[in-house]
Amino acid sequence: MTETAMSDENTIKVLFGTMTGNAEELANDLSEKLQEAGFSAPVEDMGTYEAAQLGGEKRVAIVVSTWGEGDPPDDAEDFCFDLYDGKAGDLSGVEFAVCALGDSSYDDFCGCGRKVEEALLQGGARKIIDRSELDVDFEDGYEEWAQKFLTALAAPAA
Ligand SMILES: Cc1cc2nc3c(=O)[nH]c(=O)nc-3n(C[C@H](O)[C@H](O)[C@H](O)COP(=O)(O)O)c2cc1C
User: Fold this and answer.
1) Which numbered atom of ligand 1 lies nearest the CA of 26?
2) Which of 68, 114, 119, 129 is most open to solvent, judged by the fewest CB atoms within 10 Å of its CB?
């Protein structure tokens, strides 16, 4: 079956926003895990993805770091600011999970991931699992979050 013929039910879009590659690395790993579990899991950079596209997704996993003082990575600014501003429109058909990367030595720890989640909920999207907020040693926390996500996807819809 080609990717375009896959049903939405089987597709999880994996969106990442990164400055130095950590979020991209985790997004690619997550996509591999999802594909091993039988999903189609295309990875996209927030830098080339528009908030207005979100409403057309069924399920989205978002991996995003925080820069500046609670800001999005540079390439992810347009996507994030449009999302915060409600420009993604009605997201009531979208289910999502957020994996936020940061460094707890900064005041606004994982601020971008938190704001992305708030905006998704504001748009009417449904959270599949709780957001993870991962510190500089993110590997173990990421694996735990990814397993939780896979388990939730395997469970029958509530
Ligand atoms: C200049 C600078 C500013 C940062 N600002 C924040 C911040 O405000 N909040 C936070 O939680 N982490 C902050 N971080 C930490 C990054 O989010 C963290 O290193 C993350 O793993 C980077 O992931 P990336 O490679 O995907 O961009 C900052 C890091 C740097 C170097």
Assistant:
1) 26
2) 68
**Contact 40 CB / ligand 1 (< 6 Å):** no
pLDDT at 1 over 50: no
Specify whether domain 8-148 bears CATH 3.40.50.360.
yes
Query: What pTM, to 2 d.p., does this model score?
Result: 0.95
- In a mutational test of the pocket of ligand 1, which residue from 67, 77, 114 has the highest number of ligand atoms less than 8 Å from its CB? 67
Q: Rounded CA gap, 66 and 68, in Å? A: 7
* Nearest-angstrom CA–CA distance, 44 and 52: 14
Q: What is the pLDDT of residues 25-72, one digit of tens each?
A: 999 999 999 999 999 999 999 999 999 999 999 999 999 999 999 999
User: 17: helix, coil or strand?
Assistant: strand
Rounded to whole angstroms, how far apart are CA atoms 28 and 67?
21
Contacts of 146 (CB under 8 A, 6+ apart): 29, 30, 33, 99
| Measured CA angle at 155 (ends 52, 144), to 5 deg | 80
Query: pLDDT (tens digit, 9 = 90+) per residue, 105-127?
Result: 999 999 999 999 999 999 999 99
